[in-house]
Amino acid sequence: MALIKCPECSNKISDKAKKCPHCGYIMERKYCPKCGEALAIDARACSKCAYNFMEDVMAPRPSYKSENYGLAIAALISSLIAPVISLVLSIVVLVINKEQEKSIKSLCFAAITLSAIEIFFQIIGIIFALILN
Ligand SMILES: [Zn+2]
Ligand SMILES: [Zn+2]
Q1: 18 CA to middle of ligand 2, Å?
Q2: Distance 52 CA to ligand 2 centre (A)
Q3: How far, in Å, from the CA of 51 to the mean position of ligand 2?
Q4: Which of 14, 40, 105, 127 has the smallest number of CB atoms closer than 10 Å to its CB?
Q5: What pLDDT score does 72 carry?
Q6: What are the average pLDDT values for consecutive 10-residue runs of the chain, which has 133 residues?
Q7: Dihedral, CA atoms, 125, 126, 127, 131, nearest 10 degrees?
Q8: How far is the CA of 44 from the centre of ligand 2 (A)?
Q9: Which ligand is nearest to the CA of 24?
Q10: What's residue 49's pLDDT?
Q11: Protein residues with C-beta less than 5 angstroms from the ion ligand 2
């Protein structure tokens, strides 16, 4: 049984006490993530395994993560838009030029087929991304 300092009256009390016997302060507890030891709420380090809470809190979180996330979203959106644009363009060309040459027609159908395949794989990719998340 270890002694901790009461945050209210600074008297030494048992770390197992739920209430300070000196001033009646109700002890808030946190638990060491490493060994599960009950600690005072303001403890900076675990009294049992020396786990340092301050290091954990102060550890710099990599800020580039959110930037990468934004770039990934931008990449996803542009990959979604590109085949839709080519799909729309080829349909427009097909509709506007009814008396078009066969070669133009086949180009448009090739574009439609390719964009349809791209959109199909995008949907699969999005489903996979959702499952992995
Ligand atoms: Zn106290
Ligand atoms: Zn610990």
Answers
A1: 19
A2: 9
A3: 5
A4: 127
A5: 81
A6: 84 85 86 86 86 69 68 82 86 78 83 89 87 79
A7: 100
A8: 11
A9: 1
A10: 93
A11: 32, 34-35, 37, 46, 48-49, 51
Cα dist from 125 to 43, 68, 114, 117, whole Å? 46, 18, 16, 12
Structure tokens at 47: 């009294």
| pTM to 2 decimal places | 0.40
- Of 67, 71, 65, 84, which is closest to residue 122 (Cα–Cα)? 84
Give the separation between CA 5 and CA 2, rounded to whole angstroms: 10
CB 16 within 8 A of CB 3: no
Per the structure block, which two tokens stand in for 65? 């993560």
